[in-house]
Structure formats: structure tokens, C-alpha cells
Design goal:
2 domains, 3 helices, four-stranded mixed beta sheet, 2,3-Dihydroxybiphenyl 1,2-Dioxygenase, domain 1, single chain, three-stranded mixed beta sheet
């Protein structure tokens, strides 16, 4: 069997804070999951996003430490258009999440921005240029 990408895992310090952020990006995550040590969401097309608390990871990898010095993996969310992307960025920043790169028209033909999730990971927002 050929391996296939099935899931993207995120290690989080605060499950409830992380899930609240990703709910604002449209992921369907039940409120009861906020106190769980492991959460999964299946996206259209079957790819899964997995969240584990730092404590969960340490339960089977006691020497695990939080990465330092920048993003290792980045998630990117496509928006319906430049206006929708700008509005989503503004909504996230107004909700208290940290903007990292304000919306701009990228040379590669997209409207682009980056906001930080509660663990400081950069999450890209983009839309095809008008």
C-alpha cells in the first residue's frame, strides 16, 4: 500500500483556547471537546486535523519539549475572496488573536495574511486576487 497523508497533528498548551480559534476558521468542533486530551476533526475530502495537549504527548514521549524558534508546520485557509479574507483577519484580530502579517497583495497573485493561533503558530489566510 502506498502511504497517504491522513492527518495533521497539532500539540497545544490549552485545548479550549486552540479549539476556539479553529472554530472561528470554520472547523466543526463540539464544545464538549474543550476539556478532552485528544480531539479530531475530519475535513471535507477526508483529511483529519488532530489536537493533543502537551500532557498527552508527554504521556508517551516523556522527553518531548515544546519547539522553539519558529513554525515547523503551517496551516493555510483559503477564503472565498480578498474581501472575505480581509474580514476574517479583522475578525480574528478583534477577537484578541495576534495578527502576524496584515493583509497584503502578494506577488504570487493572492491576497494573503498571517494570524497566530493561541500557541503562536502562524496560520495563513489567503484568497485569489480579484
Amino acid at each position: 500500500m502506498t502511504p497517504r497523508l491522513d492527518a495533521i497533528g497539532l500539540v497545544v498548551a490549552d485545548m479550549a483556547a486552540s479549539l476556539a480559534f479553529y472554530r472561528r476558521l470554520g472547523l466543526d468542533l463540539p464544545a464538549a471537546a474543550d476539556s478532552a486530551p485528544h480531539v479530531e476533526a475530519t475535513l471535507p475530502g477526508g483529511l483529519r486535523v488532530l489536537w493533543d495537549t502537551e500532557e498527552t504527548i508527554r504521556s508517551f514521549d516523556p522527553e518531548w519539549t515544546r519547539p522553539e524558534g519558529g513554525d515547523r508546520v503551517g496551516l493555510a485557509f483559503r477564503c472565498d475572496g480578498p474581501g472575505a479574507m480581509d474580514a476574517l483577519y479583522d475578525d480574528l484580530v478583534a477577537a484578541g488573536y495576534r495578527g502576524h502579517l496584515e493583509p497584503w497583495d502578494a506577488v504570487w497573485g493572492q491576497r494573503y495574511a498571517v494570524v497566530l493561533d493561541p500557541d503562536g503558530c502562524g496560520v495563513s489566510l489567503f484568497a485569489n486576487a480579484a
